[in-house]
Structures are given as C-alpha cells and as structure tokens.
C-alpha cells in the first residue's frame, strides 16, 4: 500500500485529489496539510511514501517544506504540483530535493501513475512541459559564482565523466524524454537505456533524473532552446 500526504492550502483541491486516490486499491491518503509547517510535522509523524506538495502556500511554502523534509532525512518522496504561471517556483522546488513535478491540470490516471512511479524510487517530470520549463529556468539564471561552481560539475567535467553515448542519453534526459522515447531516438533497447541512465547518475553523483535535468542546464552543457542532436554514436562508443 502506498501512503500519500496531501499538501495544499485549498481544501477543495485536497478533496479532489482524495477522491481520485481513494478509488485506487493500492493507494491510501493518510493525511492532509494546509501549509508547509504542518506538512513537515505530519511527514515526521506519519512518514508517508509520497507527498503531493503545492508550492505557493501562506507562511512556510512548498519549497521550504520540501527542503525541510529532505534535510530531516525522512523517507517521504515529494511530488510538486504546479501551474504554468509558477515556473520559477518549480526550479527551486527541484533544487530543494523534490522527486518530480506535475501540472495541477494533469489527468487523474497520470497523477496515479506518477505516485506509483515515485513510490517505486524513480522520478517524474511533467510530460511535454519539462523542456519548456527547465530551459526557461536556465536561461533566466546567472552563471554560478566561483565558490558554487567548484561544488558542481561544469560542462567540461561532465563531458570527461561521460562517454559519447552517455552524453547522447544525458541530453535526452535533459529534454524530458522517457526511457522508451530515448530508446526509440537512439535505436537502443529500453533496458540498455536504463543501464546508461544508472551509470550517468552514478558518475555524476546524482540522486535521480530530476537532478540530472537541473544539472544539464545549470552547467550549460545543453543550450536552452536547443533540442538534443540526433547523431549516431561515434565508433567505439558503448551502446
């Protein structure tokens, strides 16, 4: 059974999510919170598997609450819910440690699938919106200061760490493509892509593909607004 905590300052929105999730045999809503402070406290007490976290709330907002949940070492995984007019908040939420984000107008079936995916240990990025959102965040943000740059891999270090084929996969992760879409794009099996994704995360010291998306654009390895190149692997590149 997947336990879920609903966090939103609008009771009607929480009610809507509860109606959707209560219909699923393998999902249980264990609590509701109307602000970030209550969310952190309830996460500590209930230790839900997944937290559906709104961003803009009075007082302690969703970004601060996400950061606190992650810092406390709680097992709960955070799925941020947002709308297009809150793009900049999403970026900060992902950096705070969220495991993914969805748009509030997502279809019920997609919401349920996302909860199951995150509970299983994977990350979720809103289909079709990832490229637009993350590219916008990256283009609006300045280059990191010298001190910060020393703590994150730059594009040169990423290229040194990854093989040519892994760079192909990495660029497609940054564009928000799923494993099946990456496999079709590179003419690889989905299992092979999954292996590449695992190696990329391990080499770059990343928790999941959400962090990979953020890093790809922060490091300027991917140029905002430019889709990944469809080029064949170089001779000798592992597949």
Low-confidence stretches: 142-153, 231-239
Compute the number of helices.
12
- Share of residues in strands: 5-15%
* Major beta sheet, strand line-up: 2-1-3-4-5-6
Please give the radius of gyration in angstroms.
18 Å
Order of helices and strands: EHEHEHEHEHEHHHHHHH
Q: Give the overall form.
A: globular
The structural class is alpha/beta
Topology:
Elements (H helix, E strand, L loop, with lengths): L1 E6 L3 H12 L4 E7 L2 H11 L3 E5 L7 H10 L5 E6 L4 H9 L4 E4 L4 H12 L4 E2 L4 H11 L5 H4 L5 H7 L2 H11 L4 H8 L3 H15 L4 H10 L21
Parallel strand pairs: 1-2, 1-3, 3-4, 4-5, 5-6
Helix pairs in contact: 2-3, 3-4, 4-6, 6-12, 9-11, 9-12, 10-11
Describe the structure concisely for a colleague.
The protein has 239 residues and is α/β, with parallel strands linked by helices.
Molecular structure report:
- The chain is of the alpha/beta class and 239 residues long.
- It is built from 12 helices and 6 strands.
- It has a 6-stranded parallel beta sheet, with helices on both faces.
- Helix 2 (36-46) packs parallel to helix 3 (62-71) and helix 9 packs across helix 11.
- The chain is globular and about 50 Å long.
- The N and C termini lie far apart (37 Å).
- 41% of the residues are buried.
- The model is unreliable at 142-153 and 231-239 (pLDDT under 50).
């Amino acid at each position: 059974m997947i336990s879920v905590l609903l966090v939103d300052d609008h009771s009607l929105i929480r009610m809507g999510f509860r109606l959707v999730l209560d219909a699923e045999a393998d999902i249980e809503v264990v609590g509701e919170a109307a602000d970030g402070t209550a969310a952190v406290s309830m996460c500590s007490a209930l230790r839900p598997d997944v937290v559906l976290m709104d961003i803009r709330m009075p007082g302690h907002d969703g970004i601060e609450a996400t950061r606190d949940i992650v810092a406390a070492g709680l097992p709960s995984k955070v799925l941020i819910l947002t709308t297009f007019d809150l793009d900049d908040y999403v970026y900060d939420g992902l950096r705070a440690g969220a495991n993914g984000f969805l748009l509030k107008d997502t279809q019920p079936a997609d919401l349920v699938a996302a909860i199951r995916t995150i509970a299983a240990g994977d990350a979720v990025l809103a289909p079709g919106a990832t490229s637009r959102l993350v590219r916008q965040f990256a283009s609006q943000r300045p280059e990191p200061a010298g001190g910060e740059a020393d703590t994150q891999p730059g594009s040169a270090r990423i290229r040194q760490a990854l093989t040519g084929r892994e760079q192909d996969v990495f660029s497609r992760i940054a564009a928000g493509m799923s494993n099946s879409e990456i496999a079709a794009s590179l003419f690889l099996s989905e299992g092979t892509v999954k292996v590449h994704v695992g190696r990329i995360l391990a080499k770059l010291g990343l928790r999941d593909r959400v962090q990979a998306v953020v890093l790809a654009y922060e490091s300027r390895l991917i140029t905002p607004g430019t889709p990944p190149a469809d080029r064949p692997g170089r001779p000798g590149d592992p597949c």
